[in-house]
Amino acid sequence: MELNLLLQNIFAPTVLFFFIGVIAVLCKSDLEIPAPLPKLFSLYLLLAIGFKGGIGIQKSGIFNDQVLLTLSAAVLMSLLIPLLGFVVLRLKFNVFNSAAIAAAYGSISAVTFISAESFLTSQSISSDGFMIGALALMESPAILVGLLLVKYAGPKDRPNLRKLHLRSILHESFLNGSVFLLLASLIIGFLTALSNPLAIEKMKPFTHSLFYGVECFFLLDMGMVAAQRLPSLKKAGSFLISFAILMPIFNALIGVLVARSLALDTGNAFLFVVLCASASYLAVPAAMRMTVPEARSSYYISTTLGLTFPFNIVLGIPIYMSLVNKIIPTSPL
Q: I need a labelling partner for 90 at 20 to 30 A (CA). Which of 226, 267, 294, 333 fits?
């Protein structure tokens, strides 16, 4: 890993605010962000990034060959990664826990993606808006795979009240609140860019100027939440702790090879790798708590939020950029 990339990432305001949140909890400060605000920050970030992504897709051209190939590869990765994770996790855990954890690692973290975009901006590296389309498309398939694994690999004598039907599986996969808002904002951004470009300028103060400050506030809160999850990691055990670090790195290695085969340039390849390496701590846990109560939430929440998310934010992002620089050293002409 390149030391200068690590230092630039660590000293970014967003990461520093994350550390402040962690320190506040460890030092038992009474710092807190009122409960409704983190949810509002999360919704704002999803809305803003989805809207900007829709504009980017319209500018790139939705029927561009590289756009279609990249989006297809993103969906394929979000189907493949939970299957690989499930196989590994079954060495230690039952079907319910394995499926829930695998789904979380097959899905994505929008905030990790946003942090990666900020990192690219600090490096003066450009990326295309259609990568936000990949972000929007990668969350639902992993939930779908996780629930199907429970349905078909789980015990057949599961109580009727807990049996999963196709309708409920599809509902949880595609109508989860964060997934729905991101997709809806993406469509609105696309239609706005297509039919009323002047409206984009009116939205810029909301979707651009406020964005970085809200991201800092959100990561401050995430730092506090992540620190509060640290005690739960002891219950997870060394196997799951190792999985929480090694699985993202393994997924990143696959991602960078796929990005190279797609001939993605540096910025897009980096974002693709980050998507492959991130893990969901919002949409997937919400879906699994509702549909797979047999899975221990302390496993898939404490590892994704208490370990994988901080790892990706602090160390993962520069590691993945180093991987991209080594394997995709120059943008294709």
A: 226
